[in-house]
């Protein structure tokens, strides 16, 4: 710098202040609730050491690979230079590294090795939770891989999937396979029963050839897939609707000329987010496949996969919230405005504290579902546990999927303009969060799934819900610091009970209109009880109590408020339609 300023050339003067960026620290050590939850339920040294070490690796090494996956998205090479069809999905080296890492770290394997007995799913999902926001969305194929292993295990079929199962659950990178989940076709992703056009043509050796068009197939570089199709009878006829669907297994393999067997990749999707993941449209033109389910039991058989992927979705949603809160609080200790650090502005801290409460509640709801899954898989689940797992799976997926968008969006704002800048990596968190409420069942479709499981259990599912929430509250009786929260949840529970009894006397359309609000009420009330229960634990902190109190200040049971306003009466649908199309 030339103070006299008379040199003919000088560097552009850009000032001397540069803002320090937020720093990612070990996500395990940074997370008081995660560590508290594990100390309470799974205090095994080996588990805590593994998670702490993995957290360190995520912060120091893996997060940068995740960023590479985002900036080097997959691309499709459809033809070779001489015009031959090759359909190569080219992925980044970072994406491949994620696959090896996932195998080595046992991201799927832990769920099947079960080193922590009934708590193994909690262990596995805690690891996933630490991994997710740095994983470059490799968690998407992991979810489907775990889901496929679960389906194979629960169907108890050995041939031809024994080998596949061992590869899906291995820790050896060179043997590790990932799976796809091809359900969605052009006519329907929610309504697969009507929307599936793919036919399965029986072959003389008992196998099938699939012909159809799969409209969304994520992580299409997978080694195998589970998919739905309609088996043809000897006359070539198929059964319409859901009852005509069967579950098929197919290898995604290449012939000696390097061409995909029975598949053409039509194109890769151009997506808002999840750009790290190849999502393709596939023409199935004679894909060799094996039927795994009984004929017509396709949807019921793939339901186990949906349970797993929906739980992964929930854990990913909470992890996205946690990541943005973690970075925001670090930034608040580095950024100054109006003469003091952001962390010293009470209004800014209130904003972050609200995000923290949302994140804590969502964490406990998701982990409780993992707890139930672990109990079911190790044969120690009571009937009540089984009902709760069925109910909570759609509830936690739909609730956390929506909350992730809200918290991450607020989180971006806490970085000011920098939260909007692509090269900070922050906008990608928001883009990737938007999908969480769409894939694996939209909010409305899952709300209807809640109704379905309630109806099909003849009330047992709700009975389990009420019983368990009451048990959780009972543990807090006499804890005066929590009394307002306990009262709020208790009141909400009574209101919910009243609503359910009233709704049972109304026409089916009444509950359909209430489905989303009911699911939210179930989520918020249950989560309130979990926060209270955690705050009652002897190792809890004052912040655990504060979080429970704050959570329970919100409207826990919106379905009752809306019901009182007549929102579900039969005159509302035409009014809603008239308003929308006004
Ligand atoms: O989006 C996708 C992949 C994205 C990438 C992976 C990301 C993973 C997360 C990663 C995070 C980073 S794959 C596509 C996902 N598609 C869906 O989720 C479909 C959404 N639609 C539904 O869920 C619908 O409700 C359907 C398709 C299940 C409705 O089908 P049906 O056939 O009309 O339903 P039915 O007739 O009610 O059910 C048929 C049978 C019944 O069993 P039975 O006959 O024994 O009574 C049901 O009880 O299936 C059973 N069933 C279930 N069982 C249906 N749903 C369930 C369930 N959720 N759990 C247990
Ligand atoms: P639609 O069913 O057309 O839904 C449109 C709207 O209508 C939604 O808001 C929905 O909530 C609402 N709606 C539908 N039915 C009802 C009802 N009965 N009552 C009230 N509201 C209703 N699928 C796969 O099979 N495999 C994949 O790997 C895969 N990857 C994906 C990756 C990405 C990035 C995305 C975005 C999607 C992917 N999907 C995949 C598809 C995804 O599962 C579907 O898009 C999703 O299930 C919704 O189906 P749809 O697109 O047909 O929407």
UniProtKB/TrEMBL annotation:
Domain Acyl-CoA oxidase/dehydrogenase middle: 181-285
A GO molecular-function descriptor: acyl-CoA dehydrogenase activity
Acyl-CoA dehydrogenase/oxidase C-terminal domain residues: 296-452
Cofactor(s) it depends on: FAD
Gene3D superfamilies: 2.40.110.20, 6.10.250.600, Butyryl-CoA Dehydrogenase, subunit A, domain 3
Annotated Adaptive response protein AidB N-terminal domain residues: 25-154
Keywords: FAD, Flavoprotein, Oxidoreductase
Domain Acyl-CoA dehydrogenase 11-like C-terminal: 460-581
Top-rank lineage group of the source organism: Eukaryota
Family, as annotated: Belongs to the acyl-CoA dehydrogenase family.
Protein name: Acyl-CoA dehydrogenase family member 11-like
The species this protein was found in: Betta splendens (Siamese fighting fish)
